[in-house]
Amino acid sequence: MGISEKVSVAEGYLSALQAAGIRYVFANSGSDFPPIIEGLARMRRRGEPAPQFITVPHENVALCMAQGYAKVSGEAACVMVHVNVGTANTVCAMMNAARDNVPILLAAGRTPLTESGHAGSRDRVIHWMQENFDQAAIVRESVKWEYELRRGQPVKAIVHRAINIAMSEPRGPVYLTLPRETLIDDMDEASSRSDIVSSRPVAAVAALHALEQAADLIAGAQMPLIIAGHACRTSRSFAALGTLADRAGIAVTSGAHANIASDHPMNLGPVTEQLLKAADLIVVLEAPVPWLPRYMQPNGSAKVIHIAHDPFYRTYPLRNFPIDMAIAGDPGGAIELLAEMLAVRLRGKAAVVDARRKLVADRHRTIVETRKATIDSLRHMTPISPVVVADALNQVRDKDAIVVDEMGSGYHYLDMHRHDGFIAGNSGGLGMAHGQAIGAKLAAGSRQVISTIGDGSYMFGVPLAAHYVERAEKLPTLTMVFNNAQWNAVAKSVTAVYEDSEAARQNEMPLVALAPSPDYELVTQSCGGYGARVEDPGTLVAAIEKALQANADGRQATLNIITGERISR
Ligand SMILES: Cc1ncc(C[n+]2csc(CCOP(=O)(O)OP(=O)(O)O)c2C)c(N)n1
Ligand SMILES: [Mg+2]
Q1: How many CB atoms lie within 10 A of CB 42?
Q2: N or C, fewer C-beta in 10 Å, the chain?
Q3: Cα(481) to centroid of ligand 2, in Å?
């Protein structure tokens, strides 16, 4: 019952990943991995190409790295973990990947299915302990597709199918389980049978007649408003939204995603009650939560058009926003077409459009001036204001730098120049930004990658595992810990719900303090990195410059910045 020298299914699986364009697998191994490890070694000896497996000492970080990699490369990313327990450690990151529509193939071993009789049969006590009746149930709500590779199945076709489903819109994670016996078996005629290799899916563009109707409504509106969520995922759609807004003189508001340049005169920052109420036509572009109904509502007579891959967001249990037109299709494509359609429809309306464009541009200028005044008023304050950190980053970082934010500097005070210059670190589950920054660095090569992370969020992100990877894989990033020694967001949620909060009146609110605060800069130093503590706002710019220089020299860096209250708009 020795293991044959022929090609194993594990090797077939690795070749299939390679053929499907997967360059890296973020992996955390266990006793389900011998066929993978052996397969990688044999393929190396034979000189056959295989994806590079990157050892990541916690699955949460592995999944986050995959997200950062996918967001910057625009490609699907692959993770492999150890059976049910490794899968369990990915759950929070998988929830975020699903909500964020990130294409990820998560593969996991299965504990050996047989108790004896096969080279892969159980040989440890844990092989009984680590079995679930339904392993995929752990992540089922977060995946679009899940499957188990079985004996005699066409490996290459199944891997392509998994990745293409992840990449089809709305994008999202898929899950594939790989039993140990199956991986050890030889590829036979059946498992190598299918050479069907389908091409990547092309996103559907909305029906032209629907877009024509939307263009008519926009052209006829007095005060149209675009609310952009995750609308622009490419440089092309980022540029197109700028063109559309400029051409039609439409105000654009944006959530925590780079949809339009921050110095674009039609960019009015986050949506406000005033803007929402003033609009007679609202175009919601791929925004699952365009505004918070508890605090603001559009004018009752306003028409609302939603354009999204799935404008009803079927994976959200509850979501009710007014919808006059629900247009399914690629928002990037829709933006380009609408810009063309409006060019025709706005002929002869130059005076109206010019007046509106001027009005919006004036508001934009006021917003910029107000922000600048806010920064100036806080510039010398200690603890350091997060907006002052954002301002320092604007002065120091390269134009093509990537900022990954999670409860740090926030979005609206950072200058945005390109669609992939800003990554919102999480979609509900904390602990995502550090890993995503490292994955982004892998995809971005020489571009600077900076994460701005709340101290609480930093600790959720398994920092030691993340710093380990930065050093081991030579992926130096700058981690900026916004250290306010608390979970400030939780404190704020108490006062938001209880106007006259007893907890707020007491000296110390229960369950929000993170004191005594660790010396975060020392964690990096333990992994060979550069670390410094910053308390004086006057030293901030020089501190960031020094840390970025360390990155340029190949060393990761962490700044432990003693910060105060966050300002979100
Ligand atoms: C995995 C996970 N656990 C808990 C929470 C709840 N939560 C939301 S914000 C927050 C505090 C974040 O703290 P920090 O990163 O320090 O930012 P700050 O609120 O201090 O600005 C917590 C605990 C969450 N969103 N995700
Ligand atoms: Mg905090």
Answers
A1: 17
A2: N
A3: 9
**Which of 426, 488, 567 to mutate to test ligand 1, by most ligand atoms within 8 A of the CB atom?**
488
Paired residues of 559 in beta bridges:
480, 532
Structure tokens that stand for 84 in this block: 């049910």
146: helix, coil or strand? strand
Give, as one character, the DSSP assignment of residue 448: -
Model confidence pLDDT, tens digit, residues 351-362: 999 999 999 999
Q: Is the pLDDT of residue 483 over 70?
A: yes
AA letter at 74: G
Rounded to an integer, what distance in angstroms lies between the CA atom of residue 560 and that of residue 463? 13
Ligand nearest to the CA of 485: 2
Question: What is the pTM assigned to this prediction?
Answer: 0.97
Q: How far apart are the first and last CA of the chain?
A: 66
Backbone phi and psi for residue 378, each to the nearest 5 degrees, phi listed first: -105, 0
Is the Cβ atom of 313 under 6 angstroms away from ligand 1?
A: no
214: closest CA among 312, 116, 334?
A: 334
Neighbours of 146 (CB within 10 A): 19
Q: Please provide the DSSP assignment of 289-336 as one string.
A: SSS-TTT----TT-EEEEEESSTT-TTSS------SEEEES-HHHHHH
Answer whether 149's CB lies under 8 Å from 179's CB.
yes
Residue 487 near ligand 1, beta carbon < 6 Å? yes
Model confidence over 115-132: pLDDT tens digits?
A: 999 999 999 999 999 999
520 in ligand 1 pocket by Cβ < 6 Å?
no
How remote is the C-alpha of 410 from its chain's centroid?
A: 14
* Interatomic CA distance for residues 320 and 312, integer angstroms: 9
